[in-house]
Amino acid sequence: MPPIFLSSTYAQDSPGVHKGYEYTRSHNPTRYALERMVALLEGSTIPEETDPSRGGFACSSGMAATSLTLDLLDQGSRIVTGDDLYGGTHRLFNRVRERSQGLTVVPVDMTDLQRFEDSLTGDTALVWLETPTNPLLKVLDLESIVRITRAKAPGAIVACDNTFATPINQRPLDLGCDIVMHSATKYLNGHSDCIAGLLVTSRPELAERIRFIHNSAGPVLSPFDSYLVLRGIKTLDVRLERHNASAMRIAQWLEARDDIERVVYPGLPSHPQHEIAKKQMTGFGGMITIFVSGGIDRSRTMLERVNIFALAESLGGVESLVEHPAIMTHASVPPEKRAELGIDDNLVRLSIGIEDPEDLLADLEQALA
Ligand code: PLP
């Protein structure tokens, strides 16, 4: 097991002559071990001789990793984003960086490739997207998005938040994206016991720029939390196997009920982008979105009644969680924007854990009864 190197600083042989490690904000062996592991899982081709962490960068949270990406951009840059984003990402773009960095943020429904193309201008600096999206689980066609961006905005960085899919189910770098971002708090760690973020790039020049800002701005992950995520990743593959299988079973069960208005799960043939999901994903993930008949009152009752599912924000852990985006994770998205997007008051988001799926079905059955 990689040791946890808690040292903040490292003794030098002579002034300025260090032994590979100088100061933990700049380099740390435990953080490097995590960064290299995620870089390899995401398919980075940067060799260790070129970059010590092979293009992987661990940050103190998913939001810190997103901020680090924004720090690559100049003041006043124009960015095109998906319209359905984690609420905190929306808040960072629109309520922090528009003001502090003068960004122009252009949200667009990227399931409509023509609209996406129309939203791009030659000077667009960043395309930021999630797929599947949070919480509507839209699936975006990464290869087409990259192709259109290269043609219309050749200088733009394409960054994909791969939190929901994980590298087990989807590898955006293989599909042409420049940067993959993770809230490692979720599936990568998998045990709901630390907050962490990651960026991975396969482009050496981008890795060099990210490394400079990572060290300059300092949003680095602590050695202890690096160890926790590293340990979580050892079971990522087997966890995802169970998340994928249980979520599929539960989505089918929910879809067959007449007291659920609509079930959104990329693995269901009824999902509007099911064909794209089949093409670019090797599994459909553990997240399910449902619209409960009976509006906010019945949704609230269901959320209060669950026993095995915990009513809590976050996702991707071994334990199943359930939450109400309009009141919880996406409360920072303005109500009119939520209405426009379809984040309705009867929308409930389920994160299917690795418990026995029979127990989860029984819990949902009694909560909905
Ligand atoms: N991206 C997605 C898709 C998320 O769900 C979250 C958190 O819920 C984040 C980013 C932010 O990550 P963190 O909470 O680790 O800062």
List its salient traits.
five-stranded mixed beta sheet, 369 residues, 13 helices, alpha/beta, 15% strand, 12 strands, binds pyridoxal-5'-phosphate
Query: How many distinct helices?
Result: 13
The sequence of SSEs as H and E is: HEHEHEHEHEHEEHHHEHEHEEHEH
Cα radius of gyration in angstroms:
21 Å
Average of pLDDT = 97
Strand content: 15-25%
Task: Give a quick account of the main beta sheet: strands, pairing sense, barrel closure.
Answer: 7 strands, mixed
Helicity, in percent? 25-40%
How do the strands line up in the largest sheet? 1-7-6-5-4-2-3
Class from secondary-structure proportions? alpha/beta
Low-confidence stretches: none
Which ligands are bound? Answer: pyridoxal-5'-phosphate
Describe the structure.
This protein is an alpha/beta fold and 369 residues long. It is 38% helix and 15% strand. The chain has helices spanning 29-41, 62-70, 87-100, 113-119, 142-152, 166-169, 204-217, 223-233, 236-255, 274-280, 295-305, 335-341, 357-368, and strands at 56-59, 78-82, 104-108, 124-130, 157-161, 179-183, 197-201, 260-264, 287-292, 310-311, 321-323, 347-351. The strands form two sheets. Strands 1-7-6-5-4-2-3 form a seven-stranded mixed sheet, with helices on both faces. The protein has a five-stranded mixed sheet with strand order 8-9-12-11-10. Helix 5 links the parallel strand 4 (124-130) and strand 5 (157-161). The longest helix has 20 residues, at 236-255. The model has no long low-confidence stretch (mean pLDDT 97). It binds pyridoxal-5'-phosphate. The site of pyridoxal-5'-phosphate has 16 residues, from helix 2 and helix 3.
